[in-house]
């Protein structure tokens, strides 16, 4: 294994590189995760792929100094890796928020992936995040300021849960992601960046179909976060797209996933 940083302006993006396969893969994790979530599948992929597992901005070991990041930055990142590996083709893998990043960033890539794997993809229709991605910047700033009062937002979340105005997922989300300074910064900076990563489903379908990008979606039958109907509709609308339904929840990555990635 190798590790290092890719420099984008004053920012440093951490990567872990593993495998010795002839095919190049770039993998993006989900929100509040990091490159380590792919450790469990690297042995199953190592013979076929050389994989760059990335820590997205505000996650893991990446040192992102800007207040947000944009799809253009994803294009710069991919371009660097292609140049470094002297490759013209690559496979893209994204879990949850990482899948959103890939879909929203397709139009900004210097080269489209030959195969796009979307695992439990956020951005099509995701519980609560549809609201989050449309939240105006000033309101995000206001919530950020309120979060500096240690007990204010958790108490508000408790009340909203008691009044059945938010569900258990949203309640737990607030309590966890506002618990420490590091978690709060990750949440609010990603929230600001999310405005730049809205998924235009028509554009995704057009780019994938016109450029004959192979598309594979992997979903858990018990996923309570991502809409299975939205995923099925995307698959129906793109010729050749495949959907694998597993008897799992949203957090579906384990060693068995590797056999679905070719």
The proportion of residues in beta strands is: 15-25%
- At the first level of CATH, the class of the largest domain is Alpha Beta
Biggest sheet strand line-up? 1-2-4-3-5-6-7-8
Structural class: alpha/beta
Note down, in words, how this protein is organized.
The protein has 262 residues and is of the alpha/beta class. It folds into two domains: 2-127 and 197-260, Alpha/Beta hydrolase fold, catalytic domain (Rossmann fold); 134-194, no CATH class. 38% of the residues lie in helices and 19% in strands. It has helices at 39-45, 71-85, 97-105, 129-132, 137-146, 152-162, 168-177, 181-194, 201-210, 228-237, and strands at residues 2-8, 11-18, 23-28, 49-54, 91-95, 115-119, 214-220, 242-246. An eight-stranded mixed beta sheet has the order 1-2-4-3-5-6-7-8, covered by helices on one side. Strand 7 (214-220), helix 10 (228-237) and strand 8 form a beta-alpha-beta unit. Helix 2 packs across helix 3 and helix 5 (137-146) runs antiparallel to helix 8. The longest helix is centred in the first third of the chain and has 15 residues, at 71-85.
């Amino acid at each position: 294994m190798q590790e290092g940083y890719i420099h984008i302006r004053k920012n440093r993006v951490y990567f872990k590189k593993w495998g010795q396969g002839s095919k190049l893969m770039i993998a993006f994790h989900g929100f509040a995760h990091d490159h380590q979530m792919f450790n469990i599948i690297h042995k199953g992929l190592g013979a076929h792929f050389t994989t760059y597992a990335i820590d997205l901005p505000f996650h893991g070991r990446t040192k992102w100094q800007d207040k947000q990041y944009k799809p253009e930055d994803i294009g710069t990142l991919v371009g660097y890796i292609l140049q470094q590996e002297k490759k013209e083709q690559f496979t893209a893998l994204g879990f949850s928020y990482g899948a959103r990043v890939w879909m929203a960033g397709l139009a900004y890539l210097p080269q489209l992936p030959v195969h796009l794997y979307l695992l439990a993809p956020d951005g099509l229709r995701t519980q609560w995040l549809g609201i989050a991605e449309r939240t105006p910047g000033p309101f995000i700033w206001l919530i950020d300021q309120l979060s500096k009062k240690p007990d204010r937002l958790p108490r508000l979340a408790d009340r909203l849960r008691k009044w059945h105005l938010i569900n258990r997922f949203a309640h737990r989300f607030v309590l966890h992601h506002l618990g420490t300074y590091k978690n709060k910064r990750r949440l609010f900076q990603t929230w600001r960046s999310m405005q730049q990563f809205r998924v235009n489903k028509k554009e995704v379908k057009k780019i994938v179909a016109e450029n004959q990008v192979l598309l594979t979606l992997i979903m858990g039958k018990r996923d309570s976060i991502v809409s299975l109907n939205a995923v099925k509709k995307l698959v129906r609308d793109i010729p050749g797209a495949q959907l694998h339904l597993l008897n799992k929840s949203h957090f579906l990555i384990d060693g068995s996933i590797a056999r679905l990635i070719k």
